[in-house]
Amino acid sequence: MRSAFLPVLFIALCWPAMAQLPDCQAVAGWKQDGELRAYQAENLFEYMNGNAEGYLVYRFVEMKGISCQCGADTVVIDISKMEDPEDAFGIFQSSRDQRQPVEIIGMGGQILPRRAVFAKDKYYVELAANPDKDHSASLRQFVNLIEKQISGQSQPPEAIGWFPPEGLEKDSVRLKPESVLGLRVLKRGYIAQYNFGKGFLVGESSPEEARQVFAKLKERIGQVSPIRAGEEAFAGQDKYLDGMVVFRRGRFVGGFANLKGGYDASKAAAGFAAALK
Questions:
Q1: Is 53 inside any structural domain?
Q2: 1 lies in some domain
Q3: Residue 198 included in any domain
Q4: 64 vs 148: CA distance, rounded Å
Q5: What is the domain count for the chain?
Q6: C-alpha distances in Å from residue 45, one per residue of 49, 51, 158, 178, 220
Q7: Cα-based distances in Å from 119 to 23, 62, 275
Q8: Strands 189-194 and 115-120
Q9: Could you tell me if residue 5 is inside a domain?
Q10: pLDDT in tens, 105-161
Q11: Could you tell me the residue range of the domain that residue 184 belongs to?
Q12: What is the pLDDT of residue 14?
């Protein structure tokens, strides 16, 4: 009795976590191939072959997976749950093909001939198809199926819209889970590519912590000039990051770096600071 009961109980307990996985047969001609997969942070390395760290830095919680087969074609589907939508969008932005456009799928998605990825709410979804041919039609069917099964946030993180649009390269705003601009003091935040340099924004837990970060950046550069942006701001020349303007508003520290040829980004910094919520 007991041995027959436990598998049923296990399936019942796991079902809420597995609910986002598609039924392979929901796409005509496809069927499930093998068993369902499940991994947590502690054993993800067993599946990712050395790539687990790229997930863990985005506050990975768990992964569920399924493989589908149609004749000689296979599609491997993995759905990773992160701590929040910001992390899900962050890993999507870091893993997508930067040379290809982003589609409106959840918070953002991309469908290529053999690979599809998208993020919605706390979930990052990736599909890989074999053999080497164009599987985009099948991948799109699976993506549409999975996207409908995931509820929650479909808009990119609000911070994406705070970066000034003038000079901003399309789809370049990305979450850096650690060492923004290569600086340890900027622990976690966003960077963006501009035609005149790089924009950055870091959110601390309190205005006081932001003041401390701002002070450390000011000390790092040394000789600075005050500018008008946010609650306090300065401009200066960094040894490795070239020209910089840095502001603080509330719990946020942001600005621009890698400014070449004496470019004046003080106006852009003032507008950036004013957009923060």
A1: yes
A2: no
A3: yes
A4: 17
A5: 2
A6: 6, 7, 32, 20, 37
A7: 19, 15, 25
A8: unpaired
A9: no
A10: 999 999 999 999 999 999 999 999 999 999 999 999 999 999 999 999 999 999 999
A11: 158-275
A12: 44
